[in-house]
Specification:
The protein is mainly α. Helix content is about 65%, strand content about 0%. It has one domain: Four Helix Bundle (Hemerythrin (Met), subunit A).
Length: about 180
């Protein structure tokens, strides 16, 4: 006999707690790596220009806001978390996911690029540049095939309608996907 389902409110709070826990761990892990790489900056003869500090702050704030919006969307709409090992139960094509298929990665990379610019760190900048193609490969080789199998028709329509990394220019005939 199956146990009774948790009330939606309790499940949403549980998903939010798990999402915050996962996101905190993810951020701590990548921040630790980035800060360890700063040791390499001492051996370089130059740093990023001082003018990048303000840009870095803006990128960090924008990236963090986008990542938080994505997490909230997964919790409320997807009834799950953004973690690959604990994915949403429902297909999410809402909020930032209407405009681009991978806003969580974009937010995370913006946060990391912002940290590089804010700290004027060439090493962290190089880390972010290496992570970009790694994220692309993860999405193309792992996430998209799984989502195609799990959500079939709606996901195929989503792939045809919403760009992977860069939002389509308004007026090009491709309206944002709605679910």
């Amino acid at each position: 006999m199956n146990a009774p389902a948790k009330p939606l409110f309790a499940q949403t709070w549980f998903n939010a707690f798990r999402s915050i826990l996962y996101a905190s761990g993810f951020i701590a892990f990548f921040a630790w790596i980035a800060l360890q790489l700063r040791v390499c900056d001492r051996n370089l003869r130059f740093t990023l220009p001082a003018a990048t500090v303000a840009l870095g702050l803006v990128l960090m704030l924008a990236g963090a806001a986008l990542a938080l919006l994505c997490i909230a969307t997964f919790v409320v709409r997807g009834r799950g978390t953004p973690a690959l090992f604990d994915p949403p139960r429902r297909f999410v094509a809402f909020g930032p996911y209407c405009y681009v298929r991978n806003p969580m990665y974009i937010g995370g990379l913006a946060l990391l690029l912002g940290l590089a610019f804010y700290l004027r760190s060439i090493s962290i900048l190089l880390m972010a540049l290496v992570l970009m193609p790694a994220c692309h490969l993860l999405v193309v080789l792992y996430e998209e095939p799984i989502l195609k199998r799990k959500f079939d028709g709606p996901y195929e329509n989503y792939l045809a309608t919403v760009a992977r990394w860069l939002p389509r220019i308004p007026g090009t005939g491709s309206a944002p996907f709605s679910s």
